Amino acid sequence: MLSISLLSPPYATLSYAAPAWLKTSVWKCGQRVVVPLGKGGMLRAGIIVSIDAEAPVKDGVVLKECLWPAEREPLLRPEYLAMVKQLALRHMVTEGEVLGGLLPAGLRTSKLRLRVLDGGKPRTVSLRDIAKMSETERASIGALWTDNRVEILDSSFDAEEQELCSLLVDPPWPVRPSAKRQIEVLEYLQDKGMLSRTRLLQDLGSSVSSALNTLAERELVRIGPREEGTCEACVEDEPECSFKVDEGFTLLPEQQAAFDDFTRLLHEDAPNSALLYGITGSGKTVVYLELAAEALAQGRSVMFLAPEVALACKLDSAVRSRFPSQECFFYNGYQSPAERERTFRTLAERTAPCIIVGTRSALFLPAPPLGLVVLDEEHDTSFKQDEGLVYQAKEVAYYRVQQSNGLLLLGSATPDVKTFHAVQQQAVSMSVMKQRAGEGRLPDVTLIDIKTLKRTDGILALECKQQIRDVVERGEQVVILLNRRGYAPLMYCLDCGHVARCPHCEVGLTYHKERERLICHYCGHSVSYPVVCSKCKGLHYLPMGEGTEKLEEHLSDILPPDTKILRLDRDSTRRPGKMQRILDAFANQEAQVLVGTQMLSKGHHFPNVTLAVVADGDLGLNLPDYRAAERTFQLLVQASGRAGRGEKAGRVLIQTRDPGHYCWQFVGSADYDGFFTEEIERRRKRKYPPFVKLALVRASYPLDWNKGMEWIESLTQVARTLGKEHDVRVLGHTPSPLPILRGRKRFQWTLKSDSWISVRTLYYAMRNAVPRGSKLRISLDIDPVNML
Ligand code: ADP
Ligand code: ZN
């Protein structure tokens, strides 16, 4: 009997019989297979998770037979399956959900074809054909399979790869407003990035097909295969190595000490985790690289993870220049499904040590035993995935090094409060680097109170404008952080005072001037602008507040006319290669000013930047999240770290409406230790993590379902009753901070306890109270990073 976890809904693990038409030795644990499901005989892909010698009749039920293997040798090794099982238990989902969430798309398909070589002309049969055959026919192909005379053809994915659509031009596009279909296609590509033609036509309907062709003829859209060796985030060709240390450099004393500490841990015959707490610019990368050399010398593999793709690219080029002859795999969510599938397969078979570099999803690549996993900028929230498959990369990474007695190295200038607490509890070792490598010094930080700033003045205080102008006139560079993209976050009807809102989410729509649209930042819904007020039919909207587009416009008004300004946010980096091009252009000093969202606070190195301005220092402080202060502190210290990395001293100006907040005294001197001491006391007093286990249960139902509220209330009853029994504090239900999203009403419960087991027990009962097929969706987020 084969236990098979399905890689698509219902994601269950089901029992199948090994069929008579194939030898039993064909089936192996970790192997991908195709099985029939349900009465209609739909085909689904699955993974064999265990094999038992039980009879195919169980309690009088005849088991269905597994149809065909999708590969000869299993893709996944036992250790990998063990990791999947552990993740499933931790987050209370099925193993199928875990596998479905982490395998590249091409490895989850059931649409396979076989090439049968039976002496005559080779013929192709699909698994669908096989499902319809008689047992005798199947048995004859089964015999050929055993003889190695049947091959599995590659999935249909490669065909899609030949027709990828991507934008060639940024908005505003030279298209007549009446060309609705063309605009629809352009907007969609701007929103989703590169897509295959098949997918585009699936999503928008085949009626856009001719519009797409027109756009391609007019060279607004490119259709074709991906150019080799490119990822969506990088430039067309091999990214140039932006990280350089001089030939024959020596480690600085602090780097040497850290390296010695970590090397000792690496050689221990036990798993370890350690923190490299080094200020921005202290030279953490070099330590990672030298340590990687140590691990490779031991014959073990190394994995580098970065919180976002531009930083992963930078790490990748650093790795390639340090280890020119070492095999290195680069992996990130922007790569094509085919490319990711190729890397996954190659690594699944590989036994020789290698280096893997990527974003968090690279963590799930099968790999030869790992000696070292480095998580750079470990405090970054993007190491937690909270949509779809929920996981915390740090936990998974630790699980992986445990399997191979390796070392998990976390690096940051502003560690996660939880990590630093673990250091104090001596669960994690730490090395500290307090000096900047090279010439750079930490910048001076000044707070600017903007409580009295009038709306008509724009978002920048006079003093900031003055300093920006001075820096530009001196020929130096400035970065300006504003964590809000678009032109204006609120559109206010001048005639009746109504605010334009998303019909699916009820949040205010953001005005994007370049695209002449109002866009919902939560679900992507958009309408073209100008738009008629839904309440009074007026046409006069007042854009309120300021996003990056407006700030860019404002700056070009107040700075000398030949000043070049670049903008870095999700909108300006949509086209393939754009992000890297903007960063490179700024690094090459082709522009004096870089305006951007938090994207630009992360890890980049611009030696000529002498001023960093944070336009909205307290934007994050008001979020309903116990970690708001921690987030703000980290973001601002990281942003400050962008200034003064070269020979010239740097300055940082932070605008705030809440200058009394305790966070500021520590941001000014980048005093992480001071911040930590204050913050951990607050958490201890208020019983927040790491002093309690905290989880969020989320539930949602469609807006038009009138039974929803009853269900929410009854779930609260379930939670309260069990909460008393199991010593779990239940807070809620409360409407989520975003109470309506994508047409669904949302509620949440906060669970606090000393034990994860109790939290899971409670969630289990809540989930089981919801009948199968209900319109109510419920999910568990352990240690949530995003409380919205
Ligand atoms: P961070 O700690 O912020 O990640 P980086 O690793 O980016 O810092 O290093 C900052 C700069 O210091 C880089 O340009 C790097 O080349 C330089 N650097 C690091 N270590 C040394 C060294 N031992 N000697 C000379 N320069 C160094
Ligand atoms: Zn919306």
TrEMBL record:
Pfam families: DEAD, Helicase_C, PriA_3primeBD, PriA_C, Zn_ribbon_PriA. Zn(2+) 2 binds at C502, C505, C520, C523. Component of the replication restart primosome. The gene is priA. PROSITE patterns: HELICASE_ATP_BIND_1, HELICASE_CTER. Zn(2+) 1 binds at C493, C496, C533, C536. It comes from Halodesulfovibrio spirochaetisodalis. Residues 528-709 form the Helicase C-terminal domain. GO terms for cellular component: primosome complex. CDD domains: SF2_C_priA. Belongs to the helicase family. PriA subfamily. It comes from the Bacteria. It catalyses: ATP + H2O = ADP + phosphate + H(+); Couples ATP hydrolysis with the unwinding of duplex DNA by translocating in the 3'-5' direction. GO terms for molecular function: 3'-5' DNA helicase activity; ATP binding; ATP hydrolysis activity; DNA binding; zinc ion binding. Binds 2 zinc ions per subunit. The keyword Isomerase applies. Its cofactor is Zn(2+). SUPFAM superfamilies: P-loop containing nucleoside triphosphate hydrolases. Keywords: ATP-binding, DNA replication, DNA-binding, Helicase, Hydrolase, Isomerase, Metal-binding, Nucleotide-binding, Primosome, Zinc. Residues 265-433 form the Helicase ATP-binding domain. This is Replication restart protein PriA. InterPro entries: DEAD/DEAH_box_helicase_dom, Helicase_ATP-bd, Helicase_C-like, P-loop_NTPase, PriA, PriA_3primeBD, PriA_3primeBD_sf, PriA_C.
